[in-house]
Known about the structure:
Elements: E1 2-5, E2 10-14, E3 21-26, E4 32-37, E5 43-48, E6 53-57, E7 62-67, E8 74-79, E9 85-90, E10 94-99, E11 104-110, E12 116-121, E13 127-132, E14 137-141
Amino acid sequence: xxxxxxxDHLWKMWALPDGNIIMTxxxxxxxxxxxxxHPSGTQLVTSSxxxxxxxxxxxxxxxxxxxxxxxxxxxxxxxxxxxxxVASASxxxxxxxxxxxxEKCKYTMCGHKDSVNSIEFLPFSNIVLTSSADKTLSLWDxx
Length: 143
């Protein structure tokens, strides 16, 4: 199973190797830039040009949470290995750590001088790696 995001504002889940569409997610109002499976495989997080990050629950076949504090397009998103936190990277030069249980931004990481283009939690740690259009990489302690 793979998930893709597209300029058509949709994400699609595909079965491999036959290529059948299993599920489609509709709700973003602009292109999708990133998608990442929850560690349990039961949810998906997506990022979009509409400035939001959305959490999708496969059993409900719906968006269950919209995170909307970025001021420009969101380029990437990532789940923490525990499944309780999501990280997002934005054109607004910030990255954020979201607590999905409280549905709030826990930290806003400022320091890049240009768009933050990618973000990833290092496996089984609280360290976040970001890359930016300012030609730098940063490691952040998300505790």
